[in-house]
Amino acid sequence: MNIKSIKGMNDIFEPQIHLWRFVEDTVRKHFETFGYTEIKTPIVEYTVLFTRSVGDSTDIVQKEMYTFNDRNDESLTLRPEGTAPVVRAMLEQNLLNTDPTQKLFYWGPMFRYERPQKGRYRQFFQYGIETFGISSPRIDAELISMLVSLYEKLDLKELTVRLGSVGCQTCRPVYKKKITSLLQPSIKILCEDCQKRLDKNPLRVFDCKNPTCKEVAAVLPSMLDFLCEPCHQHFDQVRDDLVRLKSTFVVDKTLVRGLDYYTRTVFEITTTQLGAQSAIGGGGRYDKLVEELGGPVTPAIGYAGGVERLVLLLGETAHQHKPNLKVFFAVPDKKGQDLAFTLAHALRLKNIFCEIDYNDRSLKSQMKRAHRLQAENVLILGGSEIDQGSAVLRNMSTKVQENIEIGNLEEELLRRLS
Ligand code: HAM
What we know:
It contains 16 helices and 16 strands.
């Protein structure tokens, strides 16, 4: 029996893996420049962490979590997202006592039992940021602008920042009540999910893909028209600060996010180039979550983006990030093999990426391998070259050949290839 990987969970290898590394390095450097420090949390958490934060009535909790009982009969879940674990860790490690302003970032796999398709997987990686202790709308605008500049750095084109607000505990209940009453007469034509969630989560109708629900949602009023004065001011200030930072955005009147913990600012960054999976990432404020998970009153805002979606958008450039093979030693006989073996080791210790043949292959097939590995140079090194005291270094793109003295091979190669 051939054992396969689990549906929606991918192996990542050449050439894509080089792009992954490049993206990770770029993201990491960018976040660090803006004052974020990395946090790594476990992949598995107690299930209750997610039911209490992401929300009981969300798709993630209702349909998508990998939940199981461990040998001690405790309900555990493979993390479907990174925000709740970061809040849990921050409280458990008392980070807010050390510094009430925290800016953290993470990078790692998340798990959701979704229907796999291009850009949507069951194991996917997220890079995310979370800030704690800052209520000023300044951080909302700074964070969004930081992400826009990250994507510019990665040379991503045609992205849109969609900005909205989901209000707070004062204004949202009024809006929810209004929406519920407006939806009530249409309840029979809504999809089963929207019907079930009408009481707890009527805003989800804005995110439903069902055509009838979409039609019904299209004529509903927007949360933005129901914002209380402080939420209104916050939203206006975020917009002003975004303009100040020269970040373009569109106000999305019906933007709702698939997680329950948001308050005030919500946003998504989307592309037109990934079909249905248009969100490069999404985030928002969650000023109540720290308190709800047992911590002190702490304003917070964050964002997470999907690595696979970035890699899909940058796919064409994968080969650019492949490390260059500086030299391939083509060795036709035992004498050459012995010398190349020690020489390659010495050069590798000096950080020169080189490769040798291990399998007694013919010179022709070694040259083929050198081509396949895109070696910049090939050094043909056999008994006759060693006896004559010089070997030929061939530049594979210019085809220029040079004689190199065998007695000084290591130094001469270092000089040319470093
Ligand atoms: P989210 O919108 O659920 O937010 O996910 C963020 C991003 O993760 C999505 O926009 C998408 O790029 C990627 N993503 C989500 N699900 C999948 C999937 N099945 N396959 C591939 N990529 C996927 C959150 O997770 C929040 N924790 C974001 C946040 C941080 N809010 C505040 N802080």
